[in-house]
Design brief:
By secondary structure, the protein is α+β, with helices and mostly antiparallel strands. Helix content is 25%, strand content 29%. Helix 1 packs across helix 2 and helix 1 packs across helix 4. The protein is globular, with a radius of gyration of 21 Å.
Length: 340
């Protein structure tokens, strides 16, 4: 099952949904319709609000009961859609749409994004070969700004403060259960599913910050965290270590790899970062695969530019398309200084 956040074209609200083939099913309205069909005519929406909330983040926070309600909705809606009919809520409102009718949004705004690095050793090797002055060992981490999250169709803003806008295709591990200090064996039950993640990076700012032992502005400016197009729950991804990954710029592949190249398992990643409490809706990244612009022979040929259309894709999860656009002229200087 694939959970999405979509913009209802009739009400212009962002709501939780299920992606089923070429359709999006409104989780809340469809669950109310299911209850109504079962004879629960009083309070159907009130019950739906509790078990199948309109926020995808709240669905995750609802745990196994909310995910069970979502599966009931899918079982209810699938035969209706297969017959070419639309799903309707108890009040007659549309509860299903073709994907082409809606705009998919970022699937959630995470409570926190734990960004990791060094787990694809191919990325560390390309950095060393390119003469990158900072080592990339395993288990590097920093917090990524949740306010930087954008989704399918959103614009990546090229800030005036950088001349080296880069990309990093990664997989996001979405937490589905509160956990702390879990073993890798225990970690799997804490994972809800997976999403596509792209860690947009201002390399020149990152380089300056890392001389001072920091990672902040170069990774955390507005629109620097692409998520989407869905949260593919674990039933959609039987083995998260067998997924093809590709990032394209204007149709040209720039990064091509797969999660089979991870040097650690996703369960080990979750276990390691459960040193602090993880909550439903938190996202942990895997780190990027090789092929970033900065480590190529001619980086400036490959850095992102205004007008570029970028596609971040992971097998079984989906593809996220975005356009890079120039930001406004900067009015202040970023608080970044060279080390003495």
């Amino acid at each position: 099952m694939k959970l999405v956040t979509y913009r209802n074209p009739l009400t212009m609200e962002d709501r939780s949904g299920i992606l089923y083939g070429d359709y999006v099913v409104d989780l809340n309205s469809a669950y109310a319709a299911l209850l109504y069909r079962e004879g629960i005519t009083e309070g159907a929406y009130r019950i739906a609000d509790g078990l199948a909330p309109t926020s995808t983040l709240e669905v995750l926070r609802g745990g196994r009961r909310s995910l069970a309600a979502a599966r009931e909705v899918l079982d209810f809606a699938a035969p209706i859609l297969s017959e070419g009919r639309s799903v309707e809520g108890p009040r007659g409102e549309r509860a299903s749409f073709k994907v082409s009718e809606v705009r998919l949004r970022a699937p959630l705004r995470p409570g926190k994004i734990v960004h990791t690095a060094g787990n694809f050793r191919e990325h560390a090797r390309e950095a060393q070969k390119a003469g990158w002055e900072f080592p990339i060992p395993q288990w590097i981490s920093f917090l990524k700004n949740p306010d930087a999250v954008i989704g399918p169709g959103d614009q990546v803003i090229y800030p005036s403060y950088t001349k080296e806008l880069d990309y990093e295709l990664e997989m996001g591990i979405v937490i589905g259960k509160k956990c702390k200090e879990v073993t890798p064996e225990e970690a799997d039950e804490c994972i809800a599913g997976y999403t596509v993640f792209n860690d947009i990076t201002a390399r020149d700012i990152q380089r300056i910050e890392m001389k001072n032992g920091l990672l902040n502005l170069g990774k955390n400016m507005d629109t620097f965290a692409i998520l989407g197009p869905c949260i593919a729950l674990k039933d959609e991804v039987p083995d998260p270590h067998k997924l093809r990954m590709e990032f394209r710029v204007n149709g040209e592949p720039r990064q091509q790899s797969g999660t089979w190249n991870l040097s650690v398992t996703v369960q080990e990643i979750v276990s390691r970062y459960s040193v602090f409490t993880l909550y439903p809706g938190d996202v942990i990244s895997t780190g990027t695969v090789s092929g970033v612009a900065a480590f190529r022979e001619d980086p400036f040929k490959y850095y992102l530019k205004p007008g570029d259309v970028i596609e971040s894709e992971i097998e079984r999860i989906g593809v996220v398309r975005n356009e890079v656009v120039a930001g406004p002229p900067g009015r202040i200087k970023p608080p970044v200084s060279e080390s003495k």
